Amino acid sequence: MGTWNWGPFDNDIAFDAVRQLADGTFRMDQFRFDCEQSRLDTEQLQVLVALAAVVNGYVPAQFESARAYEFGFKDRRWIEARVREAVAPTGSELYDMWKDAGELEQWLAATNKVVR
Fold first, then answer.
1. Number of H helices, E strands in the chain
2. Of 18, 19, 21, 108, which sits 20 to 30 A from 63 (CA to CA)?
3. How many CB atoms lie within 10 A of CB 45?
């Protein structure tokens, strides 16, 4: 995984997902289907954090057009519910990854700014 900072778009998988939102190739239905097949893994959780940030109006400057992606009502509620798993201290591979790296507090601070 390429990670260069703690922000919601500061890793390869989340950055790619937002780029796909911007260019119209992101498939929310496929992402939801994939997430329902098993426990959420680190990459899926990173995408969820990025999607929650976009839903809440945050996008990387170079992908401003991602704001135009139309999340349906059910998709928004689904993202809100599932992103809580990403920041939960129990059962989240992403939370554990940042904790093991010794950068949990920095990641939580950056994530909580954009995820409600």
1. 6, 0
2. 108
3. 23
